[in-house]
Amino acid sequence: MFYFHRKTFHMKLLKVLLLLICFCICASIYAQPPHGIHWSVDGNSYYESGADGITKIQMPSFTKTVIATTQQLTPKDSSQALKVRNFFFSDDGMKILIYTNSKKVWRYDTRGDYWVLNTTDNSLKQIGKTLAVSSLMYAKFSPDGNSIAYVSKHNLYVEDVNTNSIKQLTSDGTDRMINGTFDWVYEEEFDCRDGFRWSPDGKSIAYWKIDATKIPNFLMINNTDSVYSNIVPVEYPTAGTDPSPCYVYVVNLATGNSTKMNVPGDPQQHYIPRMEWAANSTQLIIEQFNRKQNEIKIMYCDAVTGATNEIYTESDKAWVDNKNAWSGNPFGTGWEWVKNGGAFLWVSEKDGWRHIHLISRDGKNQTLLTKGNYDIITLKGYDDKSGYVYFMASPDNATQKYLYRVKMDGKTAAERLSPADESGTHDYDLSTNGLYASHEFSNINTAPVEDWVSLPKHTVIKQGEKEDNGGFVLPHANMFKITTDDSITMDGWMVKPANFDSTKKYPVVFYVYTEPAAQTVTDEYGAAFNFLYNGDFAGDGYIYISVDGRGTPAPKGAAWRKSIYRNIGRINIHDQGMAAKKIIQWPFIDTSRVAVWGWSGGGSATLNCMFQFPEIYKTGISIAAVDNELTYDDIYQERYMGLPQENREDFVAGSPITYAKNLQGHLLIIHGTGDDNVHYANAEMMINELIKYNKIFQFMPYPNRTHGLSEGEGTRQHLSNLYTTFLRQYCPPGAK
Q1: Could you tell me if 333 and 194 are in contact, meaning their C-beta atoms sit under 8 angstroms apart?
Q2: What local confidence, expressed as pLDDT, does residue 157 receive?
Q3: How many whole angstroms separate alpha carbon 177 and alpha carbon 166?
């Protein structure tokens, strides 16, 4: 566990830790790893795997029926049932595809073995049996359930379920020529993993081809698994490096011939992060970005000829968000077709707010569905039958989330479905018909409450089991706002020491992230928990604070979010410093004991805070930081900073290494040498710069650990102890 993106670290890690210490309407089920509830097509039941096998739970009675027993899931030559990592039904419900024996590919366990259980004759067969163990990726049934397509070692295959005959559809796959899945940076920054789609008639498969042959290798060195070091190459395009050419093909299964879609433009200067069948078997719909990601085009591709037809375009002075930023699908699949394929849902910030639009199939008619000066946060689903679109939003408080629905006619106002008396953060997994949902609610001081509800009245039909937290209770936190001398009002949370005495002075520790992909200030339980401190943080006498400034993805309008364009490391750090300047004027703050820490983008912010505001921050702990913005990948860095070829000075001006000479306080730098995301080279560049200016600091490399610093026996405990010891030494706890 603890694998995460640089940008989404706070959200994912915190969720995992909270589960340890306490507790879409679209019908498609995502490929590995599992995501959300396996709702039935009609939305009146769902499926789960467990000790009894695979079970169907009927709504709203929650009556359970075993669909596949453990005996049925046990291969003939084995005494043990398959360990189910995920499962998928054929369209007729008679066959079940079982995903097992999974292995990691970078962040997630997206390769493994597959078996098919035929519930009519109880036969259980392995798919791709002649291929390498645990090498199959994204296997999925054909619409008629008689074939299964999958990727193995970057080639695409289709297999007959009944005869197990295998047909190889591509043959040029190598470690760098990639069919049916993606290279490192597409995975990391576009959440693209599953790279092929069955046509609705089952006669063709559309797939991506990524040519990463020209991407330079970043060489990581493994010094610990052998007496001789091993080189670990990662294809990694840094900012300013041309991306991998990306192509879309359609293979005709009868002939085996593939046709390339004639997507206009230089394939090395654009991206195609989304591709789906256009609600028929003759056209594809694709989303194309230019290199800077400030212009997006939607176009149809003729599946037979490859001809393209552009129907919609949008541009921005900063950037345009990729569809996965608002679709609610973390694995980048699906297209929200409505009105029987006559229109689709689209989210745009073109009027300054993130709103849902209905776009006609030909792109000529657009209807604004969510009206007003507020942002939607994510789509949660849609139901063609009722004509409702469901989404999360919080018009009055950017730290919270609530469920809303709105009609697709564009005439009625959005309706809030979350209870009016539950202020905080809600989350939902909606059934395919929008009638039921698994629901979770919490706020900064209310532990998560889980239940099942019926909609739209939000009636509780089953109370979730309460998590046993062993009596652990988080300290009380306060949400607050602070306005800087620049008239920037920022949200924040604060945890005061136990037995707080306002007449005394206490140390303050700031937790930072500050970049465009995550908020730290959310009104949800655990947001203010210091997960690395080994002990009772409040009980030991620390004040803990986080504030979110401009550039963070709070639902405060596009101007707030996009003000950071070409300004990472400057405007976000300025806001942190100006907020801290106000906070340390509070009479109970000890200005000699002010610390800051963060991970990944937060590690970068920590360094910039220490270097740009040395008069404020006296102690810093920076983990896995980007010390030089020119070292990070092109998709992320160029989206928010432009192209180094055109505005290199902005990259330099925002990089912590530029300001290293200003270090005055106590600094601890932590980095994993096996970090494929934010490379260890960043730490060594920073070390060299600090040495150059004779700056004293402490440094901890973790051999072969990745960005999450989770691998290896004792690593997490060691990191926690290191963090705690350093903080206690240089920013001592307690009142004075």
Answers
A1: yes
A2: 98
A3: 21
User: pLDDT at position 468, please?
Assistant: 64
Q: Which among 329, 346, 369 is the end of a domain? A: 329
Residues 97 and 74 placed together within one structural domain of the fold: yes
Token pair 């206009």 is found at 264
Domain assignment present for residue 589? The answer is: yes
| CA atoms within 13 Å, Cβ hemisphere of 455 | 30
Which residue, among 506, 518, 524, has the nearest Cα to 583 in the 3D structure?
506
CA-based nearest residue to 613, from 575, 670, 561, 585: 575
Q: Name the pTM for this structure.
A: 0.93
What is the phi/psi pair of residue 313, to 5°? -140, 155
Domain count, the chain: 3
Residues in the chain: 736
Instruction: Please indicate, yes or no, whether residues 36 and 178 belong to a single structural domain of this protein.
Output: no
Higher pLDDT, 9 or 571: 571
Determine, yes or no, domain membership for 635.
yes
Q: Are 339 and 314 in contact (CB under 8 A)?
A: no
CA separation (Å) from 569 to 246, 479, 613, 664? Answer: 31, 25, 12, 19
- Predicted confidence (pLDDT) per residue in 187-240, tens digit: 999 999 999 999 999 999 999 999 999 999 999 999 999 999 999 999 999 999
pLDDT at 368 over 60: yes
Whole-number pLDDT of residue 390: 96
689 neighbors 669 (Cβ within 8 angstroms)? no
Q: What type of residue sits at position 423?
A: S
Which of the four pLDDT bands, split at 50, 70 and 90, describes residue 472?
confident
Report d(CA 629, CA 644) in Å as an integer.
10
CB 564 within 8 A of CB 516: yes
Q: What is the CATH number of the domain that holds 135?
A: 2.130.10.10
Domain that holds residue 590: 477-730
Last residue of a domain, one of 329, 353, 383: 329
Alpha-carbon dihedral 425, 429, 433, 435, rounded to 10 degrees: -50
Contact criterion met (CB below 8 Å) for 576 and 510:
yes
| Exposure b/e, 697-730, CB count within 10 A at least 16 = b | beebebbbbbbbbbbeeebbeebeebbbebbbeb
